[in-house]
């Protein structure tokens, strides 16, 4: 007679034993001791600064300098003819880094570190100003909140975004310096909290001027200037928010790693070159090189190319590339040469500078928005720009026709010198020209945009796949077409 043993209870016990054995140390076994589970603000901050500044300098090189006619192209000239497709770098980079900016704020808030909180608000404000100034309405109040299950962020109006930016910068001013933690990981100011505070208030003045055609900003600007102890601003080039690049990786000036062929496609714009030569302005020798044919001779010459020529005309202009000026040597080091300290003092990643601020104040004073003398601010801006490049203002420069301050033409003079001072410093020259129409720029002869200079970037196509309803609502509010010619709110 066979006996059958019921094995189910045995297997059940064995299974429970195995399960309990696996579960007992599960968390410990599956935790990598070499990977941190949490981060601190100093670990996040360097990459936030580096990647956002580098993106701005890259977009400036590829589009910003071209559209504002500081440089021009002699090959692959689509950008110069306004045959723009999607330009997504600013959008993608700023929103990607916004997550880490928000993390910096949250971590610092929990730890009671007001300095890091203030820095995160300054960076957020600058980053979001770039997004909205390039594209118009954009996700802001609901941006980068995927962890909060906001997967379809609404597009705030540009007016709402600017209200938020200005409020955040005011809050940043109050936070910075209110606690005593040492700021590490700060590759912009080396942990100098007072400089972050000056940047917060200088940016407030920039953005108030940006929206000054849409609302009266005089009282707000004057309030900042009236109390320099509570709301300090830049007082010299020593305060510049300019990322100091290094001779080698990882913090090199972005253009230093480019192929020489790619760099040679870009030349001095005739618009910028002619203006500098008309004024006998030595900044020409910083911005550009003598033509290859004249370099090293007793009579070096500088020749710019008109913007917006077709491929053949651009490449053949003035006899060809050998007779057209390349970009200045500080911005691109040929071969494997190491940049000099002078090069590194010029080729920086700019967020904002003292000369720009002086021109903002000159315009504000001329318009009666603030007290002070427009002439003094204007001349301080010119002098500050020369000094930034290691130059002194030539004798008679400020007194000559086309530079000498004249109340009747003050806004044109201020805008022109500001345009020169903003050479290859990001997208500010383009933003400012859209607001002021100074200097007077003429679209290139072979442009394909109906004789119009573009005034915005189109929204990325991936937004139509990922957030279709909200991006289409934003387009409907802004003219109904996703087009490079639709003006943003502050430009209307």
Automatic annotation (TrEMBL):
Record bears the keyword GTP-binding: no
Keyword GTP-binding: no
Signal peptide annotation: 1-21
Keywords, sorted A to Z: Lipoprotein, Signal
Domain of life: Bacteria
Name of this chain's protein: SusD/RagB family nutrient-binding outer membrane lipoprotein
Organism (species): Rhodocytophaga rosea
Source taxonomy: Bacteria, Pseudomonadati, Bacteroidota, Cytophagia, Cytophagales
